[in-house]
Write a structure and sequence with these properties.
The complex is a heterodimer of chains A (220) and B (219).
Chain A (H helix, E strand, L loop, with lengths): L2 E6 L4 H13 L5 E5 L2 H8 L8 H17 L17 H14 L1 H16 L8 H26 L1 H17 L7 E5 L5 E5 L4 H8 L16
Parallel strand pairs in A: 1-2
Antiparallel strand pairs in A: 1-3, 3-4
Helix pairs in contact in A: 1-5, 2-7, 4-5, 4-6, 4-7, 5-6
Chain B lengths: L2 E6 L6 H10 L1 H4 L3 E5 L2 H8 L8 H17 L17 H14 L1 H17 L8 H12 L2 H10 L3 H16 L7 E5 L5 E5 L4 H7 L14
Parallel strand pairs in B: 1-2
Antiparallel strand pairs in B: 1-3, 3-4
Classes of the chains: A alpha+beta (220), B alpha+beta (219).
Chain lengths: 220, 219
């Protein structure tokens, strides 16, 4: 059976875009969302974020806008004032959710953080806001369980985030979004970036570009 | 009328499939294509960017993606990746510019394209070897005499200056890597696109669709 594992850090707008496309167009495919710490991947691989090169940063903004328009991905207008922001806490909350509540609810929390930052313009750097995103995603009771895990098993949470990040690196990642995809015959491939989502589609047997896309008058 | 300009360096892996598709695929063949040889090393230097192969994990992925891309669109590709990578393309780029100065844009485009086919498509020559370079140019131009003239001027000021000018032009248009494409749309707008991955942007700017519905029928 085909499956998708997606490694993301909410700091990446491309991660948000990739997740949106996966949820919208590959909804029948088992999905595992793995929160990683992008800073850790950068450090381990010697890579740098795109905006470390000004012209690249400019292009990435244009490219992201165009991609969102092409695929009708709802996204905030413009980047957060502080960008990139530290996401260590946000990532740890997502990891803690996976530990405390299991994969499915863990996925829900990952999604919630992505949407919070990239659609709802929430400042996910603050502890208070992270708590609010969590409660909104899974309700007060489950949020309580997550926060308990986060505060009482802090080392386990830190260790798991580290493990997730190392798993991404080990499979070849130097950035996010990083896909590890299995096709229906069990063949596994690694795929990087929203740019290559056509390869993900191919592997899981979904037509790409998706049939249902409204052909808007392109204003490039 | 719409037109596509590709700023191209033989050293740039993905410039090969990009140019092959722009040159051959029905989606793009009815739009005038301008091939401008640049020196990608100069782009990296000016912009502060790093060549992808400097990062081992990125290098690995580049190889993987390169073969996947070529396979997907049935673009001929050398069975083994060059052992020395990245290559130093200074001479091949100067040779391309020299061909342009001596024999015009059409011959220059032909030389750029066929150097790429011979290197990335077939692994037939070493761009860092001047002897190989002269042979390849002679073969493409169909004249040993013409190739000799090319080799005579590649170290000269005029060629160097033109290559630098092309390179700086690409950076002025926003380039930080290759392939860098600039589309002039039918209503006079300019659209920039980076990488073989962005051919959908190029296609849309010229009123076409990419990738084509039936990829297997490509080329």
């Amino acid at each position: 059976m085909a499956s998708i594992t997606l490694y993301i850090d909410c700091v990446s707008n491309y991660g948000y875009m990739a997740l949106h496309l996966v949820k919208t167009h590959f909804s029948g495919v088992p999905l595992k969302l793995v929160p990683v710490f992008l800073g850790g991947i950068m450090q381990a691989t010697g890579n740098r974020p795109p905006f470390a090169v000004p012209l690249k940063g400019n292009y990435m903004k244009l490219d992201a806008e165009r991609t969102c328009r092409r695929y009708n991905i709802p996204i905030r207008k413009g980047f957060p004032e502080k960008f990139p922001m530290p996401t260590l806490l946000a990532q740890r909350v997502q990891v803690a959710a996976g530990i405390a509540l299991g994969q499915e609810k863990g996925n829900t929390v990952v999604e919630a953080f992505e949407k919070a930052l990239w659609l709802e313009e929430v400042d996910i750097e603050s502890q208070e806001n992270c708590g609010a995103v969590l409660v909104k995603a899974v309700g007060k009771e489950d949020a309580g369980k997550v926060l308990k895990t986060l505060t009482e098993n802090t080392d386990a949470v830190k260790e798991q985030l580290k493990k997730n990040t190392e798993a991404a690196i080990k499979s070849g990642s130097f950035g996010v979004p990083w896909f590890v995809v299995k096709d229906k015959d069990g063949k596994e491939d690694v795929i990087w970036g929203v740019d290559h989502i056509d390869l993900v589609a191919e592997m899981v047997g979904v037509q790409w570009p998706p049939a249902g896309l409204k052909k808007e008058t392109a204003q490039l | 009328m719409a037109s596509v300009t590709i700023y191209h360096d033989l050293a740039s892996t993905f410039s090969y499939p990009a140019l092959e598709l722009l040159y051959n695929h029905p989606t793009f063949t009815s739009t005038p294509l301008h091939v401008v040889p640049i020196f990608l090393g100069g782009v990296f230097q000016t912009t502060g960017n790093k060549p992808p192969p400097m990062i081992p994990a990125k290098r690995e992925y580049l190889l993987l993606e390169f073969y996947r891309k070529c396979r997907k669109f049935s673009i001929p590709v050398r069975p083994e990746f060059p052992k020395k990578f990245p290559i130093n393309s200074m001479n091949s780029q100067r040779a391309a510019v020299a061909v342009g100065l001596l024999y015009g844009e059409q011959e220059m485009s032909k030389v750029v394209r066929e150097m790429g086919v011979a290197f990335w498509g077939k692994g037939e020559w070493n761009p860092e070897d001047k002897g190989d370079l002269e042979k390849v140019v002679a073969k493409i131009l169909g004249s040993a005499e013409k190739a000799k003239k090319v080799m005579e001027i590649i170290g000269g000021q005029e060629v160097k200056a033109k290559l630098t000018e092309n390179t700086q032009d690409s950076v002025k248009k926003g380039a930080f890597g290759g392939p860098w494409m600039v589309v002039k749309t039918a209503d006079g707008k300019e659209v920039v696109a980076w990488g073989v991955d962005a051919l959908d942007v190029v296609a849309e700017a010229i009123g076409k669709e990419w990738p084509p519905r039936d990829v297997k029928a490509s080329l």
